[in-house]
Amino acid sequence: MSSSSSANRTIYIGGLAPHITEAHLVSYFSTYGDILDVQLPRPGPRRGQQEQVDSGAASGGGGGGGGGEQAPHRGFGFVDFSTAREAEDAIDNMHLNEIEGRVISVNLAKPSRKEAASGGNMRNRAVWQDEEWIKQYGTEQEGAAPEAAAGEPQTTDADA
Description:
Blueprint: H1 3-7, E1 10-14, H2 22-29, E2 35-39, H3 49-58, E3 76-81, H4 84-94, E4 98-99, E5 102-103, E6 105-108, H5 113-117, H6 131-149
Antiparallel strand pairs: 1-3, 1-6, 2-3, 4-5
């Protein structure tokens, strides 16, 4: 399967309420197909916040019933389906619908900046691991050796 089709399996969901969890997204979107992964990106710590978090943890966690609560997500998420068709069905049926009192936006996810900068289609693989590259360039190298061994004259720069 090509990597472009794997990109077409991931949808972006925007406009999510803060209390929505990965389990909520699975519940709402599993109707449209097999879900491989769900992500709700959470904000990273800002400068100076990490020290406060560390010192709060050292002093016993600082009151409240939050215990193991995570930081709220950033208001959007991603769902990765097993096929592009399932992702299209979810987009067609859920775009501009309401979840937990909020109208959501559902579209195909765009490649991450990191993936787009690396060309996106190689998925951090060496070129010789790509079947298309092997078909195009691998046969030329293999074909050159037998011709030279067949007794054809070879020219060098000195002959020219």
